[in-house]
């Protein structure tokens, strides 16, 4: 299956389809600092998925983190990733979108708390699918039954008593 362009904000089923079709993800704004959300998401993806992961951070370029080399830019990657997951300021998103368009990745994913309608419009006009204000880790766990591991209520009704 290939990743098709979705010209609107993807629905839950469409996001699930994007994640199922993807084999590689680049994390732009990855931080080697274990207290940062990008590190937490990268750790989850590295341990609990089969995605080929690429970390982008010019300040940490060349370092080995979580068994992967950190790259300075998207242009340095050995392949075009299926999804570019972005952990940058909203004001930085237009420049990131320009890089993603130049690279040819089909999906740009703005992490939880990140929206930029101008950048999203530019990406969509170039044929990219855009996900805004969604955590890729949470969405992946949601679609793979793992939200309970992160402390979220999965809505599953069970006869088992919870530990007190």
UniProtKB/TrEMBL annotation:
Residues 18-114 form the CoA-binding domain. Signal peptide: none annotated. This is CoA-binding protein. It comes from Nocardioides luteus.
């Amino acid at each position: 299956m290939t990743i098709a362009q979705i010209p609107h904000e993807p629905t839950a089923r469409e996001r699930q389809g994007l994640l199922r079709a993807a084999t590689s993800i680049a994390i732009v704004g990855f931080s080697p600092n274990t207290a940062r959300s990008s590190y937490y998401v990268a750790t989850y993806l590295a341990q609990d998925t089969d995605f080929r992961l690429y970390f982008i951070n010019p300040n940490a370029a060349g370092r080995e983190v979580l068994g992967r080399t950190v790259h300075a830019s998207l242009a340095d990657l050995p392949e075009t990733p299926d999804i570019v997951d972005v952990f940058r300021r909203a004001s930085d998103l237009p420049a990131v979108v320009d890089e993603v368009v130049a690279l040819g990745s089909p999906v740009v994913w703005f992490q939880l708390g990140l929206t930029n309608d101008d950048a999203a419009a530019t990406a969509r006009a170039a044929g990219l699918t855009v996900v805004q204000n969604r955590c890729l880790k949470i969405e992946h766990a949601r679609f793979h039954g793992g939200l309970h591991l992160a402390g979220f209520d999965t809505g599953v009704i069970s006869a088992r008593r919870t530990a007190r």
